[in-house]
Amino acid sequence: MLGGKRMDRSLKAGLGACLLAVSLAMSAQPLAAQQNYPDRPVRVILPFGAGGVADVITRLVAEKLGDKLGQRFIVENYPGPGGINAARTALQAPADGYVLSYMASATAMSVNLFERLPYDPVKDFAAVSSLGYFDLTFVVARNSPYKTLGDFIKAAKEKPGQLNVGTILAGSSQNLGMELFKSSTGLNVAIVPFRNSGEVLIGLERNDVQLAAEFYPPVRGGIEAKKFIPLATSGAKRTAYSPNVPTVKEAGGGDFAVTSWSGLFVRAGTPQEPIAKLNAALKDALADPEVVKKALDLGVEMGGSTPQELHDRLVAEIPKWRSVIDNARIERRKGQ
Predict the structure, then answer these.
(1) Rounded CA gap, 230 and 148, in Å?
(2) 17-31, 64-78, 108-122, 214-228: least confidently modelled range
(3) 161 to each of 51, 155, 158, 186, 202, how far by Cα in Å?
(4) pLDDT at res. 334
(5) How many Cβ atoms are within 10 Å of 102's Cβ, its own excluded?
(6) Domains recognised in the chain with CATH numbers
(7) Staple partner for 218: which of 53, 97, 115, 197, CB 3.0–4.6 Å?
(8) Taking residues 116-126, what's their average pLDDT?
(9) Are 129 and 279 in contact (CB under 8 A)?
């Protein structure tokens, strides 16, 4: 009887030790997976179609990340209003760092342009790093009487309601940037939204609008061909791709400054180890001379950030653009 009890205790002790070993092994697996990240290809979800500036730059950065981390970074395009298609796709994946999401200033705008988005960019995603920054370029036609932005502002004040400014669609980054410029300068001008950049520039040549605001790639050819004259750029400092063009503030536009941004995010709940590895690799990739040069040709100044800096930027811009949208009385769209 005594021997049986000892054997029973021995069996229980052996079973307990076995279960403990299994438990320790299982708990070590996630940690090992994080330390070995990435050990398979990583998807990068882009809320835009192929061939645009965001697509070209993201693919370039993805290639460099692959070189740094030893795995393929595969860019997938999920265009659609408000980044909804892209966000839904990303949120279907586990929070393990194997799906990255491209977001930008437009994300902070979309939160306010829709009655309700089916995702919350602040709560559902965690920031990794910024990618790049890009300013609006204010241009006039070659034969314009306005040789400086100060000239245009002076004329607009002398002839309230008679001058027009062209941008693409209402609610776009370009359009909202000019709504902010209008309100910050107190100008009484009409902001005319066109369907695309080509129509904006045709309107400028026809004098349907006397000033246009657009990102650099669509206006670069016209500037180089002397069809359009750049009067200012919208950021707080001059751009590396247009160093001779003054900022709006330098050109007499007050304290107005708007710089659009882009960055990479992962699903909320992703462990810190993958985020830290991605952040470090991005820092190197964004400093690569090939990346810097190609991005500048496209009107983008590459630059990384800490996850917290990118998170704070997104959080701060949501109420900023809400105010602009409300003041411009832009009707909110229905979510999907």
Answers:
(1) 9
(2) 17-31
(3) 38, 11, 10, 12, 21
(4) 81
(5) 25
(6) 42-134+260-328 (3.40.190.150), 135-233 (3.40.190.10)
(7) 197
(8) 96
(9) yes
Instruction: Please compute the mean of the pLDDT values over residues 4-12 and round it to a whole number.
Output: 53
Q: Determine the length of the chain.
A: 336
Q: 120: burial class by Cβ within 10 Å (0-12, 13-18, 19+)? A: exposed
Residue type, 285: A
Nearest C-alpha neighbor of 86 from the set 67, 100, 98, 66: 100
Which residue, 63, 132, 128, 103, is CA-closest to 278? Answer: 128
- The residues near 78 (Cβ < 8 Å, ≥ 6 apart) are 45, 46, 47, 85, 86, 89
**Residue 259 class from Cβ within 10 Å (0-12 exposed, 13-18 middle, 19+ buried)?**
middle
Percent over 90 (pLDDT), the chain: 88
Quick: pLDDT tens for 283-302: 999 999 999 999 999 999 99
